[in-house]
Amino acid sequence: MLYGGLVLYGVSAGLQLRAGLGLAPWDVLNQGVARHAGISIGAASIAIGALVLLLWIPLRQRPGLGTVSNVLVIGLAMDATLTLTPAPASLWARIPLLAFSVMLCSMATGLYISARFGPGPRDGLMTGLHRRTGRSVRLVRTCIEVVVLATGFVLGGSVGAGTVVFALAIGPLSQFFLRFFAPLGAAPEGAAVAGTVRVASGGPAPSGPAAAREVPDLV
What we know:
This protein is mainly alpha-helical. The protein is built from nine helices and no strands. The protein has helices at residues 2-19, 25-37, 41-59, 65-84, 91-114, 121-133, 137-154, 161-181, 209-213. The radius of gyration is 17 Å and the shape is globular.
């Protein structure tokens, strides 16, 4: 579930770029950095993910297997997708490609988070700032996304209708797939569940049958 989800996440990001209608906020930043640094967008994603992980140190966040894998696998899968997938010329092909990429990203998010091997570096930054500042998750996430999007836009990243579609659709769709895949990632009775952050309640991560019913508050 973990690696399948991460690979599909990278594939979805590459397909959204090929659609050419605007990228997700973090990919806008990745593309902007890639253009100025003369590297691939996947390499930029890996570099930025590693830098975000450094911000975990003062926030006292603890990475897991899923966190480190997130940094490496998504960027590699994204570059591989861009190498293998040509950009469609017709707008009528790009629109459904955009819709498919957003749906695939949501499914990938549900898979890798439900595997419960730790949040991604960007999700950990969000929850870490939430704990340190006492601000709501929604406010912290919004501020991060706005700063990332604005920085990427200034650097030349692609902002468009696809950016708006992603912003509006990713939350509800990811929540659906998180609930769909949660039973598959449930831990055995009495085992600790790694990577589930109960931000809203501040309580411990659930285990056993309860883990199948709980959804991580990371979207």
